[in-house]
Amino acid sequence: MQINEQAVRERAYFIWEGEGRVHGQADIHWLRAEAELTAAAPAKKAARKAEGAEKVAKLAAKAAPAAKSPAPVKSAAPAKAATPATTARKAAKPKASTATVAAASAEKAKPARARAALH
What we know:
Blueprint (H helix, E strand, L loop, with lengths): L4 H14 L7 H43 L15 H9 L5 H11 L11
Helix pairs in contact: 1-2
């Protein structure tokens, strides 16, 4: 598996931050990031293969009992119809307009204080 430049750049950045952001060691951080990502690539590939095998095994285990006996069919519950009272309550409450909100906030506003004298 190939590693891309962006992944190396990000890993080198985190190494640089972890070492206290010391300047002048960019080459060392880059090579270390490449080495870490190269070493991690085969481990990730093996882990993905193992996960894939586990998923296949689970699907096969689920499919085997299902083939022996059909699953019971659940009946759908009847949908609850909206009553006229609930729809009337929702429709009866209109939203406040911008002008109404501005007028209400103007009434609640505190009066401006007089400027203090400088002398």
